[in-house]
Amino acid sequence: MKMIDLNCDMGEAFGNYTMPNDEKLMDYISSANIACGFHAGDPTVMQQTVALALKKGVAIGAHPGLPDLQGFGRREMKISPNEAYQLTLYQMGALSGFVKATGSKLHHVKAHGALYNMAAKDTALARAIVQAVYDFDPGLILYALAGSKMIDEAEKKGIVTASEVFADRSYQDDGLLTPRSADNALITNEEDAISQALGFALNQEVNSINGNRIAVKAETVCLHGDGEHAVAFAKLIAERLKKEGIAIKAPTI
Predict the structure, then answer these.
(1) Of 44, 46, 52, which is closest to residue 16 (Cα–Cα)?
(2) In this structure, what DSSP letter does residue 56 have?
(3) Which of 18, 20, 26, 191 is packed most tightly, with the most Cβ within 10 A?
(4) What number of H helices and E strands is found in the chain?
(5) Where does the pLDDT of residue 65 fall: very low under 50, low under 70, confident under 90, or very high at 90 and above?
(6) pTM for this one?
(7) Three-class SS of residue 52?
(8) What is the DSSP letter of 208?
(9) Could you state, in order of their start, the residue ranges of all structural domains in the chain?
């Protein structure tokens, strides 16, 4: 049976306010990337989201981002490789504390936003993030953009990877995501997004913005949880995948 992971970024709130979709989304995903306080999240939200993931049987990952609350971690910052190492290590430690307190442990790490995109193309940043993961726990799985420098560096280090693809983002001919600044960066048509997700899972390929068919290693599909129809969309994708005989399951070592 074919398998694929559905992951979602979660815990991106503050204080006693929780993201309205998080609990419902947990019914359709297999792994959650929980914000660690730099781009979003705080101790209260981290504790609540970890508890929710454990209750729903969803694998827990740290989601470290740039220290930019106002920009939600989506604005590029000039950081050195050592700074990338430090902020990744710091945030993994923060979330891991809440996970460890429950008697469980972290499953994976996935960088957020601009940090994710920067490290996808910058070998030095990718190497620094990978080193932080390795030094913290070499048994963690690194989620990163399929075909990116992050995947390359993790494989060199011997860290298990999960090549990530996006159902609602368009792709360029080189297999990288279309920058968010572009008008055609997001796929807003629900059926188009579902079709793209099925293409990943069934055929390991995607259509680029220029109509070219591109081979891509797809092991985990990211679903964005902050849209107006996020829960309905996640439900539809999960149902369609299962209908095609594809199991939804978090990756394992």
Answers:
(1) 44
(2) H
(3) 26
(4) 8, 10
(5) very high
(6) 0.94
(7) helix
(8) B
(9) 2-248
pLDDT in tens, 201-243: 999 999 999 999 999 999 999 998 776 678 988 999 999 999 9
Q: What gap in Å lies between CA 202 and CA 72, rounded to an integer?
A: 33
Please tell me the distance from the alpha carbon of residue 156 to that of residue 130, in angstroms, as a whole number.
Answer: 10
| Pair 220, 251: CB distance under 8 Å | yes
Residues contacting 46, CB < 8 A, separation 6+: 11, 34, 35, 36, 37, 94, 95, 98
Closest to 166 (Cα-Cα) out of 147, 153, 150: 147
Residue 167 contacts residue 197 (beta carbons within 8 Å):
yes
Cβ atoms < 10 Å from Cβ of 218: 23
Q: Which residue has the tokens 């930019």?
A: 68
Query: Tokens 């796929």, residue?
Result: 187
How far is Cα 91 from Cα 215, in angstroms, rounded to an integer? 33
Q: Which residues contact 111 (CB under 8 A, 6 or more apart)?
A: 63, 64, 65, 88, 119, 129, 144, 150
The H-or-E segment that residue 191 falls in is helix 190-203
Q: At what angle do helices 81-101 and 123-136 cross, to 10 degrees?
A: 30
Strand partners of residue 166: 222
pLDDT of res. 118: 96
CB-neighbour burial class of residue 146 (10 A; exposed 0-12, middle 13-18, buried 19+):
buried
User: Mapping DSSP to helix (H, G, I), strand (E, B) and coil, where does residue 240 land?
Assistant: helix
Whose structure tokens read 């019914």? 27
Domain 2-248 CATH assignment equals 3.20.20.370: yes
Tens-place pLDDT, residues 12-46: 989 876 667 889 999 999 999 999 999 999 999 99
Please tell me whether residue 44 adopts helix, strand or coil conformation: helix
